[in-house]
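Researcher: Please generate the 3D structure of the following complex. Treat every line as part of one assembly.
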Amino acid sequence: VIERYLAELRRLLGRGPGRARLLAEVEDHLRETARRLEREGAPPTEAEGAAVAAFGPPDELAAQLAGEQAATAVGWSSRVLMVALAGFVPVYGFVENFSPPAPWPSADATPAHLVWKLAAAEYLLLSAALVGASVFILARGYRVRPGGPPGLARGLALAVALCALALAVGAALGALEVVQRNALYRDLGVADPLTPLELLLTTAWVALLSISALAAAAWSIRRSFSLTRA
Amino acid sequence: MGPEALKGHLDALLLAVVARGPAHGYRIVEDLRLRSGGAFDLPEGTVYPALHRLERGGLLASRWTLSSGRRRRVYRITRRGRAALARQTADWERFAGAVQAVLT
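Model: Done. Output below.
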């Protein structure tokens, strides 16, 4: 009876983290309960059946564990998102302070598409920051509650993912704008552009922040949407 | 008393049990049942995800031990766990006192 219960729980838990540890703890608990019941006079099969019944259905246990893990994943992904957003502040300061200032050298050279890209990037980053902060606060509140509704975990995970996506797109547009603006200034020879090393470091840092935020978001989506399997 | 009645209080109850000394899951469930006079009738399995969550939150710590040839995960309360337990106990006493005052 205990073996069947453990096999079912193993199947429901899939390959989630903490699976081996939980299974070991559950097995120890069930066998300990069955031993106690046997000492009290129950036949072995009955004792195992009673131990399993007292433990609760495996699907409920798997769902509860998945819910706890989803809450943790959403909490951490929202933290990673906030750190990634904060990481853009020094990049923005660096680019704005060390790249040549506007206005553009001549009307012909004014790259409207670059201005649009910069505006779009700033808009996306600002939106991501505002929404990300709200999600972070919600996720903090959610984390401290025991369990929580799966729908809330999924909603928060999706919100983190949208913010991370806005962050990545904004970062890509901003980085592209910096590279193109740099090239334009160099061609016009009106001011010193960023050095290749500065450009490389800036884009690498921006890529690292974006990838971290996206990876964390993907992790929390995977955890929160695995709730349906349990 | 079913799981619904315990909702929101399970963390404090588990912390209180573990605060009495390191224990493995089975012992914690037994202690909870004995100390409540059998009033807490919740599926025993629900305790494990809660223990794991408390550990992730830094309120409990755990390690494997060998006891009579069996590997067991033993939980102990951390300093943060004791502080959380003190806060939750104070909150509960205020709440229970207020309910008592209204009911009687």
